[in-house]
Description:
The complex is a heterodimer. By secondary structure, chain A is mainly α. Chain A contains 7 helices and no strands. By secondary structure, chain B is an all-alpha fold. Mean pLDDT of chain B is about 85; it is low at about 1-45. The chains are: A mainly alpha, B mainly alpha. Chains A and B meet through helix 1, helix 2, helix 3, helix 4 and helix 5 of A and helix 1, helix 4, helix 6 and helix 10 of B.
Amino acid sequence: MSDNTHDHHDVIAEIKKVTIILSVLTIVELILGFWMIDITSEGLRLGIKGVIVILMMAKAFYIVAYFMHLKHELKNLIMTIIVPLALFIWFIIAFISDGNSFKNLRNNYDRRFKEQSTIQVKQEEHGAKHEAAGSAHGEKATETKKEEHAAGEHH
Amino acid sequence: MGLHICIPILGRLTPKKVGYFYSNILDSQYFCTEIETEMSNVTTASTKEAKWWNGGKSPFDVEYGKVMMWYFLMSDAFTFGAFLISYGTVRFSTNGWPDPNKVFKSFPFAPEGVNAPLVFVSIMTFILIVSSVTMVLAVHAGKMMDKKGVVRNMIWTIIGGIAFLSCQAWEWNHLHHEGAWWGLNPFINADGTASTTNFTNFFFTITGFHGFHVFSGVVINIIMLIMTLMDKFEQRGRYLMIEKAGLYWHFVDLVWVFVFTCFYLL
Lengths: 155, 266
């Protein structure tokens, strides 16, 4: 029984440790998010986003390893879970770069696509407030937006 | 080169015959030891690699239902992964995208037009983390056969789940009143150009799918609580089902880590 209580304290200590780590990582993520609001430099924004993604992976690791207890399982079970998930490395690289390439191709060869992304639209700040009454009005707002869209195309 | 990496994995993970075949190519000694072991029925140190899969010993050393829960969660991870990757792909193939800090800036009971980006969603995130912690505590209490601890922590977990769902319901309702829905996007891109409905479509689909998982998790947790109160697990002598429900609940929290980052921070 004394062995059991010793184990008990170890587990509780681990849960506390992981809770603190997860909270700290989340707070750091949020601080970076707040900091990013006022940053306009694209390079710096990209760097912060990279850091946020790394923090996200760290959080995922702590949840899976300790909360889901995977770290304390046999290596056979760990491998049967982790190895298939390694496919994601390829998925992410392949699909994201494909999306990026599609954007570049369209910007180069699809003039309309390129034009669409340079036309400025007015934000209906006040419109949004009036819509608080019901969803039917929300549809109206989009229609107005579409009209603006169409007007933009005529130029 | 690739074949060489493949073979040892196959040798370990596939049924016995395939294992024999491949390992025989790689290491003829292995084959001999196999026969010796079977004849003398003694496990020797040299067969340490293979003996997990020779029977007589549980290679994963977890209960069947738990292994299946892991495999289900793996398939679910691929579903969510596919959603999030398609979102990323579409976002990377578009020139502009709405600024999440301008879209998700409202807060319940705050005056209309309040500018509080990230505040509400950070509360949602912490609710889910805390409910995940209470779930671990419930699982641990179950291992200690502490019924009162299980009941207390399960109630907290359920409250956390319901609180998260309420937050999400409020947010969806608010966005809907602003004119956002599947196929409707009242927001403009961060650079002031017109946005497509991809933004709202992905947002509602992915957070909706996650919210549905949270809802299922709450239902499962309520069933677990009722079973605990009915002494089902006391009679069985173990709280294994709490552990399986716990795995599912942590997975829901795990997915939120990705959804939260992809939609609200990036």
